[in-house]
Automatic annotation (TrEMBL):
TM helices/strands, residue ranges: none
Keyword Transferase in annotation: no
Top-level taxonomy: Bacteria, Bacillati, Actinomycetota, Actinomycetes, Micrococcales
UniProt keyword annotations, A-Z: Signal
Gene3D superfamilies for the chain: Periplasmic binding protein-like II
Pfam family, one: SBP_bac_1
SUPFAM superfamilies, alphabetized: Periplasmic binding protein-like II (SSF53850)
Signal sequence residues: 1-25
Entry-linked InterPro entries: Bact_solute-bd_prot1, SBP, TAT_signal
Annotated protein name in UniProt: Extracellular solute-binding protein
Amino acid sequence: MRNFSLSRRSMLGATAGLSALTLGACGTAGPGSSSGGGGGASASYWALSGEPNETIYGDSVEAFNEGDQGTIDLTFFQNDAYKQKIRTAIGAGEAPTIIYGWGGGGLRTYAEESQVDDLTSWLDENAEYRDRFVESVWAAASVDEKVYALPQGATQPIILFQNTAVLEDIGAEAPETWDQLLDVVEKANSAGVAPISLAGQSRWTSMMWLEYLLDRIGGPDVFARIAAGDAEAWLDDSVIAMGEKVVELLDASAFADGFESMAADSNTDQALLWTDQAALMLHGGWTFGSMKASGGDFVSSGRLGYGPFPTIDGGAGELANLVGNPCNYLSVSSAASDEEKEVALAFLRDGAMSDQVATDLIASGSVPVIVGQEEALAASEDADYLQWVYTSLQDAPAFTQSWDQALQPTEAETLLVNIEQLFLGAIGPEQFAENMAAGKGA
């Protein structure tokens, strides 16, 4: 089995085929299940590729491996490839020891099928560890009041990013109302730039638009009913109105040409924004770090703007409401050996969200989900953005978890199929709602 350093270098960006070979060669615990390192035992860990988090999490593993509590063998996957591969691996009893996820409905499925360990007692024994995190992270980590995952990383609300230079050039303002958004669309098209950059091939990127549209039209309670298992809530009038707003955007040519074939993993959508070819992009807060790392002087020059999703006249949702992911989560595979679990829990306690990881996250442009970070955020070179995110979190009346994570996997896949068809214009708002209520793919 490759050690961490070689595995990390060799897996970047092209993990799907090679990782499958690694998985098959390592038995039921996945990559890294062999013995080795300080303490004599090893645990495997799959994570998502992409900077800056790839370096941050890689460094945390290297730091842990230098100690005497065992060895973590880390493998990186691209986002979309990982989602399919982890489901297959868990179903086959070949999951890595540490399972990266998003909590919510997917975690519920793992817990109900006894595929991940109940960590409630472990947390009770490590109360000091639990108290390090903001309280809001634990809801998505819990199933029936038991905790099955531990928080990792930064909070990840969905943000309406802006290219302020493009907006100024076309004579438009950062939109806070639906009419202002449509004004940006009209003026951008007239100026020959893309109004909105969207990587529609990935589907979950289009879902972000639906999440905010439904919130702004019907308020957060509509999706709360859906997530609680009320399929009839998909037929709510606000769901139909949500779909009609998508049609309005499509008819206005609001999205970049060829958005249907753009994939988020390639960062093409971000590149349109930072190269001044698009005015707006609705995306997760995690993209700030990648735009800072890869977008040249886009962030440092002040061309990157950010703000809330617009309100819709007559809608029930507030401008301050958020959607997105509280953070990411790490679970422990029930299929792992006792020795692997011991190493994994030691890493989760002492390495995965260490003080150094929190410092590195802030330096990369993220808000870690650890308490007591106010001074560090204020001292950051990205203080304006980070404090805006932090304040938005504190002030949000509602923070709705990303739909494909809040729902169980089968329903989430049905959702993504119907979202793709809605944004392609293959189905209309009513058909979308009826398909979802019936649990039917398009």
